[in-house]
TrEMBL record:
Belongs to the CutC family. This is Copper homeostasis protein cutC homolog. The lineage of its organism: Eukaryota, Metazoa, Chordata, Craniata, Vertebrata. Its main location: cytoplasm. Keywords: Copper, Cytoplasm, Metal-binding, Nucleus. Pfam families: CutC. It comes from the Eukaryota. GO terms for molecular function: copper ion binding. SUPFAM superfamilies: CutC-like (SSF110395). InterPro entries: CutC-like, CutC-like_dom_sf. Homotetramer. It is found in: Cytoplasm; Nucleus. It comes from Scleropages formosus.
Amino acid sequence: MSEGFLMEVCVDSVESAINAERGGAGRLELCSSLLEGGITPSVGLLHVVKQYVRIPVYCMIRPRGGDFLYTDREVEVMKTDIELIKSHGADGLVLGALTEDGRVDTELCVELLAACRPLPVTFHRAFDMVHDPVVALETLISLGFERVLTSGCDSSALEGLPLIKRLVEQVRGGISERNLQRVLEGSGAQEFHCSARSTKDSTMKFRNPCVNMGASLSAPEYSVKVADVTKIRTLNAIAKNTL
């Protein structure tokens, strides 16, 4: 992008994808179930999103919520998803895997990267769960990952700012309207990742309050989270004025 920065918006619906592009996003991370931190989207979702947006769409490859230590069968699912998603027009992929002691699973990542070629690959926020982020970053660079998603191994990018700055300096080569300027100024990062969502009420007229489709901590049945055009435009303006 000519402004010298790039905003990637994480989306899990066609409406959010369209809103993100309208708001000025330069790239999408497409996934399902943001409530779980994002899992692999359906091929149908990818296919329709690609019909409505022109910006690059990177797809999450994550077979389930929870940790990033995968069984052999889960790896089979990941490799199959990679092939399907590549064949349906993804512009890049987002994935990650760790060993039981919190290190990058180098062997598995090499296999997954080979399956992803020639598409670019981002290592997702599994990075925030590693034992030693400095060592992990060097590993990811040597493996050939294009970028790393991180909140600085903390609850938000603002809290993790000191580590983000250190990691940006090492490479040299979660965001909101309230903290973006401080994060950009303090870290020197040229790309940022956010979901920038607002709650949208369901259009259902009849509602049964006695039934919940998921667990007790799942999303409300009669509202959805959608990327907010106004929030994304605000973040874009902050970045333009900061960088």
